[in-house]
Design brief:
The complex is a heterodimer of chains A (334) and B (314). Chain A has 334 residues and is α+β, with helices and mostly antiparallel strands. Chain A contains nine helices and twelve strands. Chain A is elongated. The termini of chain A are far apart. The N terminus of chain A is likely disordered. Chain B has 314 residues and is of the alpha+beta class. A five-stranded antiparallel sheet of chain B has the order 8-7-6-5-9. A four-stranded antiparallel sheet of chain B has the order 11-12-10-13. The model of chain B has no long low-confidence stretch (mean pLDDT 87). The chains are: A alpha+beta (334), B alpha+beta (314). Chains A and B meet through helix 1, helix 4, helix 5, strand 3 and strand 5 of A and helix 1, helix 5, strand 3, helix 6 and strand 4 of B. Strand 3 of chain A pairs parallel with strand 6 of chain B, so a sheet runs across the interface.
Chain lengths: 334, 314
């Protein structure tokens, strides 16, 4: 792949196919926009000027039979301005249509950005999408919906702002682990969406350490505007790629479950130390327990179809589970 | 160097095909495009690879029978309408908005940059470079691009799902809760259905011709489905009580799947449309003893049975 994940800068194209793809886009652009310098064009296509110049060199040999000077593509450089012009390349006057993969990724990214809480309707992105849609089949309109997760526009905007400015925010936060609501002072470092939820990595004054908070569990907030002493420079949680949302400590207890096949998702979702698929399709998984209310809830949700096989650092998990179930049953008058 | 020779040959081949209004045979192309090996077998191999390379880039290289020759031979053609991107005439701020989108929401194995090259290049979006960290990354799935292609071309498709072959008119791809879903018309069940892409087995088979698919109904719901709305079951209207404490969280999680919300003793009652009982039970139990499923009796009995089995086991 010649391009990186964020649609930004170009690594030198490697295969002939990747280089052809670039040429079939750059040449039409220069044909349509004569007079730009090598540096300006390189910038436009996310390349180094030297790399682009080396790529364009191949054009001297390209043209139509009989490959006489008047049928070969001509690149002219204005001696004064350095502006480039390409001649005798009428057949490359427009780029190739978007492939399905290109259209999909562009539309999905745009729908994702549009779905951000507080996104601007009828802005330049909406206008751009409407224009791009006219170059695709009519079926492409409304072909993709992207929902990155629920969050209130104000919370998302303020947390992103605080993370850029390095300022502190007070939040009222519902913790699913402890099943309680508490006030916390945090210094947001990075906001991101993953697996359908929005999270903020932050320094938490109450915990005196870095923590991850879910935006849809923030029940109230107050931007303090004070600059935090804690910066994300050494943070393990602020960086590229997937963030591990769970952070087990070395002495956390573990529980081993035999999961019914339909509960296999547990292995992908929670901090699992170890797991093994059994002959009957069930999965033996050892989970790290970071909080008791969380364990109780999960055991009740998984139900009797999943079996508690063992535990380390916890007594009688089966009783913990049946007490939690009995407590809910009381609600139902049983 | 060999790579540059290959690039040069592919560019010439594309130029010759784009410049021709009639189909050209392999032998004609060999004469018109310098750089092919002379020996027939080596030529065939090189030409086959070049055709594959052009098609992999999405170049619409088609093959037609040239019938006036005797015997008829195969000719190659690039249809101009299929090749040339009409100019969408994007303004700099529109191009910048697309680039910001590509930088904000990344895609595993992305090709956004290539799309932006074609649409007019990478235009900077102001001086705010501090927000270049992608906010979210969307996962790629092997069936995603074929399904998108089928939706765009309005083609009927078939695929394996839950051990059954489904014949489907695809309408829309939804990314929700970190997963991709397909929404479409299920011809076997004669109703709209949704499918999780990770559960689609094998390849997407295209049926019929472009345009054959059942069209999506007007005013199709354009909102994210919750887990308990995604299922094959006849929808239930469930009534869920949630304590005052947990009501704000529950309201957010239920979203628009809650048809009605009203205050109730020490809490809030929600009317929820449920077409996946397992998923809804899971959600309700996640609220612990802060929630009670009031109706219908059938679902209430299901929860009581579920909990009683747990208690009975110990």
């Amino acid at each position: 792949m010649a391009v990186d994940n964020c649609g930004g800068e170009l690594v030198a194209p490697v295969s002939a196919g990747d280089r052809l793809k670039l040429m079939l886009a750059v040449v039409p652009w220069i044909v349509a926009n004569p007079g730009h310098t090598m540096a300006q064009i390189a910038d436009r296509f996310g390349m180094e000027p030297d790399a682009l110049e080396a790529e364009l060199d191949v054009l001297w040999m390209v043209g139509l039979p009989p490959y006489t000077p008047d049928t070969l593509i001509d690149i002219l450089e204005d001696p004064e301005t350095g502006g480039l012009t390409i001649k005798f390349a009428d057949y490359f006057s427009r780029p190739l249509r978007l492939s399905h993969g290109e259209a999909l990724t562009l539309l999905a990214a745009s729908e994702g950005l549009r779905s951000l809480p507080g996104g601007e309707a009828d802005g330049p992105l909406d206008r751009a999408l409407a224009k791009v849609a006219t170059t695709l089949s009519p079926g492409a309109a409304g072909a993709i919906e992207v929902d990155l997760g629920a969050a209130e526009a104000e919370v998302l905007t303020e947390l992103r702002k605080a993370s850029v400015e390095g300022t502190e925010v007070n939040i009222r936060y519902y913790s699913a682990n402890s099943d309680s609501v508490a006030e916390r002072k945090i210094a947001p470092w990075r906001v991101f969406a993953q697996d359908g939820s929005w999270y903020v990595v932050a320094w938490c004054s109450q915990a005196d350490g870095e923590r991850i908070f879910r935006l849809d569990r923030i029940e109230g907030f107050d931007a303090l505007g004070t600059v935090s002493q804690h910066r994300p420079d050494d943070s393990a949680l602020v960086g590229d790629g997937e963030t591990q949302v769970f952070h087990p400590r070395p002495n956390d207890p573990t529980v081993t479950l035999r999961l019914a096949p339909e509960s296999a998702w547990v292995v992908e979702t929670y901090p699992v130390q170890d797991h093994k698929v059994m002959a009957d399709g069930s999965i033996k998984a050892t989970l790290v327990i970071t909080a008791m209310p969380w364990l109780e809830r999960l055991l009740v949700q998984l139900g009797a179809r999943s079996e508690v096989v063992g535990a380390d650092g916890l007594d009688d998990v089966a009783t913990i589970r049946s007490r939690a179930a009995a407590r809910i049953l009381q609600r139902y008058g049983k | 160097m060999a790579r540059t020779e290959k690039l040069e040959r592919l560019l010439k081949l594309t130029a010759v095909l784009l410049n021709s209004t009639t189909p050209l045979t392999a032998q004609e192309l060999k004469l018109k495009v310098p750089g092919y090996p002379e020996a027939p077998l080596s030529f065939n191999r090189a030409f086959e690879r070049d055709k594959d390379d052009l098609r992999a880039l999405g170049i619409p290289l088609s093959m037609v029978q040239i019938t006036f020759k005797d015997p008829p031979v195969e000719g190659y053609l690039i249809n101009h309408d299929d090749y040339y991107l009409p100019d969408p005439e994007l303004t700099p701020d529109e191009l910048a908005a697309l680039r910001l989108a590509a930088l904000t929401v990344s895609f595993d194995g992305a090709t956004e940059a290539a799309a932006l090259w074609k649409l007019g290049g990478l235009v900077p979006f102001g001086d705010d470079s501090s927000e270049q960290d992608p906010l979210a990354s969307l996962p790629m799935s092997p069936t995603l691009i074929p399904l998108f292609g089928a939706i765009v071309e309005r083609r009927k498709i078939s695929f394996g799902y839950n051990d059954l072959d489904r014949e489907v008119s695809p309408w829309r791809l939804d990314f929700a809760r970190g997963r991709w879903y397909l929404i479409g018309y299920d011809h076997n069940r004669e109703d709209a259905r949704n499918y999780r892409l990770s559960r689609i087995a094998g390849e997407i088979e295209l049926l019929g011709e472009p345009g054959d698919a059942e069209p999506a109904p007007e005013g199709q719901r354009e909102r994210t489905l919750r887990a308990w709305e995604i299922g094959d079951e006849e929808p239930h209207k469930a009534v869920l009580w949630v304590s005052q404490d947990r009501a704000p969280i529950a309201e957010r999680m239920l979203g628009q799947s809650a048809i009605a919300v009203r205050p109730s003793a020490e809490g809030v009652e929600f009317d929820v449309s449920v077409s996946n009982v397992d998923a809804f039970r899971f959600f309700v139990l996640g609220l612990g003893d802060q929630a009670e499923l009031l109706a219908p009796q059938e679902l209430r009995d299901d929860i009581v049975r579920w909990l009683s089995t747990i208690v009975g086991e110990s």
